[in-house]
Amino acid sequence: MARALRNKPGFYLLTRFLNSSRPAFLAYRRWLQTIAYEEVQFSTERPHNSTAFVIHGLLGSGRNWRSFSRNLAATLSNSSPLSVLLQNNWRMVLVDQRNHGSSADLEGLYPPHDIVNAAQDMANLVRSQGWDWPDVVMGHSLGGKVGLQFAESCARGDYGESAALPKQAQIVALFWLFVQSLWAILPAPSNKKYQWMDAEAVEYCYSWQIKQEKGSNSHEDNWEQLLVLDSVPGKVNPENSDGEVEKVLETLQNLPSSVPSRKWLVNHMMELGFSKSLADWIGSNLKKSGEHETWTFNLEGAVEMFNSYREMDYWSLLENPPQGMEITIVRAEKSDRWDPDVIQRLETLAARQRNASQGTVSVHLLPNAGHWVHVDNPKGLLDIVAPKLASLG
Fold first, then answer.
1. Which pairs from 155-159 meet CB under 8 Å and 24+ separation?
2. Alpha-carbon distance 254 to 247, whole Å?
3. Per residue in 376-385, pLDDT tens?
4. Less CB within 10 Å around the terminal CB: N or C of the chain?
5. What does the alpha-carbon distance between residue 374 and residue 140 come to, in Å, rounded to a whole number?
6. Residue 346 to residue 318: CA distance in whole angstroms
């Protein structure tokens, strides 16, 4: 997510030209002293040249987003002839937030367990691995607010400072110089120069050259992307929801630390009035421990994070998004988390004319989906997210 903030020193991007390879998926897990993560790439045989961080929601883990991330990586690698020509290979980093998944058992993730520290964990992960800063951050629910905090902290320079040329501009510049060199060596009639190139590649590279000749410093076609999936950006008013999350957390807190079996838990939750789909999902967060089952998450820490989620407010960030960044809010059509006033405020922000010193806000409605956007309508979500990422790579 550094590109929009490249005039702040610590953010750097490394461009690599890649060799062709046969497609394959890569997914492997590493454990760190910061937070655990899983990487998903379309190709195992060439390095990635773009990175997206994917942040799960409350009581979830990175693995919840594995299938969607694989489909997204495949789509981006073959989204257009230009993508194939530039050999785009996106890496999806599926993090396990503190108190969740494989991060729940890691030491060194000290309290307070709040949104600010959850975002700091991602910055620490980047530093500890010596990675380039992510091009895209996508967060669902609780993870959406972590993404907003990450962007806000980046804008303030909390994670360090650096400067860098946009990666996309670097790739196009070098590729265009290569094309022009070929023309100088192998002259041809102007109407035949482009025959070996796809029309999209020609138009893209030529428009880039015109911008350079005009001395334009605009990066409107190279926005950094922050995608917030069904996550209310302001403080959450409990009166505007049915309190289901609070009921789930209270129920789990009243259970023993280990339960007899997943089947027992599902039946127990359903007896308390929860739906079978929700009970099954809660049951998927159990792991075997001897003869019993225990949680994959740290419940008390997760409760602290949820309380922080409800209190954090990022309307000021949406009012003044950092230059070169697009903040995309995806609202699920059937989600019960949205107050009409909040929806109206977002739509007003999205319609506002921005000056050159500001980023943008866009709002998308995901049809036929409840809060679990990647499960209820994965294709619809892919249709929204993929073009956003493709515009960067």
1. 155/5, 155/8, 155/317, 155/322, 157/8, 158/123, 159/10, 159/120, 159/123
2. 11
3. 999 999 999 9
4. C
5. 9
6. 9
